[in-house]
Amino acid sequence: MSDFDAVVVGSGPNGLSAAATLAGTGRKVLVIEGSDTIGGGTRTEELTLPGFRHDVCSAFHPLAMGSPFYTQLPLGEHGLEWIQPDAPLGHAVAPGRSVILERDIAATAAQLGLDGATYHRLMSRWTGQWPMIAEHVLGPLVGIPAHPLTVARFGLNSLASARLTARRRFESTEARALFAGCAAHAFLPLTHPLSASFGWLLMVTGHVFGWPVAKGGSQSIADALASYIESLGGVIETGKMIGDLAEIPATPITILDVTPTAFAHIAGDRLPAGYIQRARRYRYGPAAFKVDYAVDRPIPWADPQLARAGTIHIGGTDDDINRAETQTYRGTAAADPFVLVGQQSLFDDTRAPEGKHTVWAYAHVPNASGDDFTDTIARRIEELAPGFSETILATHVFSPRELEARNPNYVGGDISGGAHSASQLVFRPFPQTNPYTTPIAGVYLGSSSTPPGGGSHGMCGHNAALAALERA
């Protein structure tokens, strides 16, 4: 046995949250990271030019700010500071025509015409019940929820497809597009069951928490968690890629922030053949193709309202989004893919030299696609912001394979930890009594391939640590 009580493999938000949970009980924890830097999906680097700090993957964090675990930790004392854009989200319906998700429900509803009253009623209900919803949506899918009726009502609304929900609930193009854009974060056709859950979740959290950025970059989230862990005596080692369980110091608790297929490889014949087969059948979803820009001025949006929002959805109508997401999910590159744009430096002046800015953008593309979407993303932005190309000083591109090379959990460029098919969304990684346990005693999975899934909230790792502590 080693000098440690627990080992965590991986230093993304989930690995660090698992380590923080265990260290908080007085256990001495070792975190092992394969990369030379910690952070996983919450890294920030000078990808283009000196002084331009770009978020490598995650950038906006409604679920992190609202994480039931993070709110228990003194992360502010360890350097984490949230910045709220003027508005969480802007959705571009057409050139010069947009709808803005405001923090204020009434201000959002006022843009939606006849749908305003319906929107206000729905959002007021769910935001008022968020604490009860969050305990189930972000908690482990085990046991009976403390507020079963509220959870059941939210769950029933989430079971439907985003397409059906948008058409039944709303009549205006703007309301349908706003909901569809949030639902598209599922990387699913809008006709798939449960795709509505992403629309409800991201709109509700936008009103409750906003879509904030971490001052200085998303790396600040990882750095704050690491500082907290080290303050409790934890140790973090980088540059040590684990290829076999035998390389991990023997401790009563081992938590792996890895995908099911990576776990099957690391554990090898220590696992039953049936478990290995299920792990190898685990499906990964569409990918991100990411472009970062250093620009000499803000994006010149045709609709100036978009300059108020931290995140921009470039997707058009709900029909446009469904068409693109369906093609992408089926493995065909869409001519006009769904594109997300981040303009963090408008609200965080630590991201770029004075007077300059960063632009963060990615398109939804087929898994492991080898196509180059650099010009496609630039064109999509240019259509809504004529003159954008003239502002570019430098670019940096991450293809799906390059994203995976940076973070092995992004298999084929899938940044969500696995496809959100109905079974894998509800039963991640696959159906079993406790989703975090494995057939190996004392070894647990705590990655975004376990509930509640992707995001920088850290709840997958926290829940895995709770499962380990309960068994220990």
Outline the fold blueprint.
Layout: E1 6-9, H1 13-23, E2 29-32, E3 44-45, E4 54-55, H2 62-65, E5 82-83, E6 87-94, E7 97-101, H3 105-109, H4 116-128, H5 130-137, H6 148-159, H7 162-169, H8 173-183, H9 195-209, E8 213-214, H10 219-231, E9 235-237, E10 253-256, H11 260-267, H12 273-281, E11 287-295, E12 309-314, H13 318-329, E13 339-342, E14 357-365, H14 374-384, E15 392-398, H15 400-406, H16 422-426, E16 443-445, H17 459-471
Parallel strand pairs: 1-2, 1-10, 2-9, 6-12, 10-16
Antiparallel strand pairs: 3-4, 5-8, 6-7, 11-14, 11-15, 12-13, 13-14
Helix pairs in contact: 1-10, 1-17, 6-9, 7-8, 7-9, 8-9, 8-13, 11-12
Q: Estimate the global geometry from the Cα principal axes.
A: globular
Strand content: 15-25%
CATH-defined architecture of the largest domain: Alpha-Beta Complex
The helicity comes to 25-40%
Question: Biggest sheet: strands side by side, in what order?
Answer: 7-6-12-13-14-11-15
**Largest beta-sheet characterization:** 7 strands, mixed
**Can you tell me the CATH class of the largest domain?**
Alpha Beta
Sequence stretches where pLDDT stays below 50 over 5 or more residues: none
- The total beta strand count reads 16
CATH topology of the largest domain: Polyamine Oxidase, Chain A, domain 2
Distance between the termini: 16 Å
Tally of alpha and pi helices: 17
The secondary structure category is: alpha/beta
**Rg, please?**
21 Å
Number of domains: 2
| Average pLDDT, all residues | 94
Walk me through what this model shows.
The mean pLDDT is 94. The protein has 472 residues and is an alpha/beta fold. The chain has two domains: 6-81 and 214-282 and 410-471, FAD/NAD(P)-binding domain; 82-212 and 285-406, Polyamine Oxidase, Chain A, domain 2. Strands 7-6-12-13-14-11-15 form a seven-stranded mixed sheet, with helices on both faces. A five-stranded parallel sheet has the order 9-2-1-10-16, with helices on one face. Strand 6 (87-94) and strand 7 form a beta hairpin. It has 17 helices and 16 strands. Helix 1 runs parallel beside helix 10 and helix 6 crosses helix 9.
